[in-house]
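Subject: Interface between my chains keeps coming out wrong

I've been trying for a while to get a sensible model of this assembly. When I model each chain on its own everything looks fine, but I need the whole thing in one frame so I can look at the contacts. Pasting all components below, labels as-is. Any help appreciated, I'm running out of ideas.
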Amino acid sequence: MSSQPATLGSVPRDPAPRTGPGAPATGSHTARRWLGLVPLVALCVVALAASMLVGSRAIPAGDVLYGLLHPDPDEALSQTIWFSRVPRTALILVAGVALGIAGTLMQAVTRNPMTDPGILGVNAGASLAVVVGLAFFGVGDISQYMWWSFAGAMVTSVLVFMIGNTGSARGNPVRLTLSGVALGAVLSGFSSAVLLTNSHVLEKLRGWSAGTTASQPLDATMAIVPFVVIGVVIAILSSRSLNVLALGEASAVAMGAHPNRIRTVVLVAIALLAGGATAAAGPIGFLGLLAPHLARMVVGPHQGWILAYSALIAPTVMGFADVLGRVITTGEVPVGVVTAFIGAPVLIYMVRRFRVAEM
Amino acid sequence: MTSLDFGRKVFRVGRRVRPFLIADVRSTVVCGALWIAIVALAVYSAFSGSAQITPGEALQALIGRGDAYTSMVVLEWRAPRVLLAVLLGASLAISGAIFQNLTGNPLGSPDVIGFQTGSYTGALIVMLLLGGGSAETMAGALLGGIATAFVVFFLSSKRGAVRGVRLIIVGIGVSAMLASMNVWILLTATVEDAIMASLWGAGNPSGVSWATLLGVFGGSVVFLLASLALSRPMRLMQIGTPFATALGQNVRVVQVAAIVIGIGLTALATAPVGPPWFIASAAPQIARRAVRSDRLALGPTAATGALLLLLADVLAQRIYPDSPLPVGIVTVSIGGLYFLWLLLREGKKR
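Reply #2:
Try treating it as a single job with all components included. I did that and got this:
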């Protein structure tokens, strides 16, 4: 990221060219960026529709639509749709957007293209908090353990930043990734220690810990929506500051930015987004890594646009992954497993194909 | 005739001009202290435990004069376990040092780039899908680890050259895929089988036999000696490939040899008892800081790894005596926390 020329371009709704290094190309870039949204939105809609239509029980599209529009507690078809397909689709949308944006923010604030909430241990922290809550504090349903998840995500991201960003190492991506991986390993070690000594918690969390959309009711998704919305709003408001931060610490300070203030605010957003998504769907990896990369390939180094594209790409990928997981075997493959199998090869392809900025 | 200045205190053994042996003072002292600690801990571990045996009885058993029960506990249960922990710790630490040296990055160690996850996947396939016993599990883990290593190297090499960062990222990717596959395999099993398999996956050296120990020992010693022979050329490579080439080193041969040794050590160390996580990535870093050296320090690294794993095993058996934890969980905690503390301290100092 740091090796690319940063374009101090415009926010999405302001297509007027500006003076600056990237100014001559800004007009055509913006047109291309707006144009690119059209197929992306279409794909996202297709993915969500597929999630409504495909499942272990074959239901014709017309019946799905009818069941959706006429909720009827006495009819099996309507029940299937409202208690299985709709919650899953809603969760895909909410968790997908949250993870895509959390990943984008993470990569922007660390100035490291190879991070996401999974790699930096934030998902592991959220999981550990939920595991501890379930095992030792008798936490039962999502409205309670959601808070544990937020707290875990928050504490972990603050810790990672504190350890990776102290003294001379400030802004050093290697140090940050290193402390993230180390912290993530320690936290998942603690989680397994708790799980392996409490078989009832293991039984309860087995599905969740793989990252799945199958087990949550619609209320669970709705419970995290406000937090995800707050996170998204913070992300949109801070996109300009992140553009400045992308120039580097010294340049950002010289331009009047307050890097630490930006980092703190963005950290809160990351905790809300990653913690919320993890609470509802379990730790899902690679969406946060994949989405900003794909977005950056299309739109170039512009945080606002990367955010917009990531927020569309992540639920699309998650939707297709979930549908694939439903049909690929007789049982069901959890979406977290499928996203890893989609995301990791893409990551490997990217690192072979392109010159990745040195860590 | 002036003597060479190494920039640090060294011992010289032999003639003044071309000494027979040059040993770094700090590194020698650290190594000595570590080995004393290892021996002390090993003795403690062999003499104490959940079985009610007094140190006197244990000593009798060790010199071959104990009764049948004491001999079995001390000689058949405790001794192989202690020796295995030392051997595996040293092997993992050396393989970690080799890979970190090759990639020039502390993240480039076999546990981060997926070799141990691959071993776990191999073991899971054998245990849960094929229903094999412990010998088959070991073979599966060995194959899984080696196959993963080959895939990672194949995917990260471009025109025959493997670059550090690319290797690490490819490794993290492959590792994440395998990890999620492991989760999925565990999900298809019953809860009891899943717990059994997860215990293996967290490293569980209870019930190790002398046969296993000797088998692993035979393999590891060959690789450990080979790594000793490689330590000089690898130090040279650390200066930079062009420089090493200019000094007449066949860089490609050294790299391939180092990779083979590293993979062999990791696979051998993971197969018998499951992966003790984080020894391979933490031990070389801890050792490097302890001897205040920037280069490959194989002796202190091996000693650090052995001490870490032994300590973890002793702790794992004693934290909850009722249900001993798998050692891997303790290694992750000790190694990881120490590693974090080092990062924090280094960040503050400057």
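Reply #3:
Confirming on my end. The longest helix of chain B spans residues 68-103.
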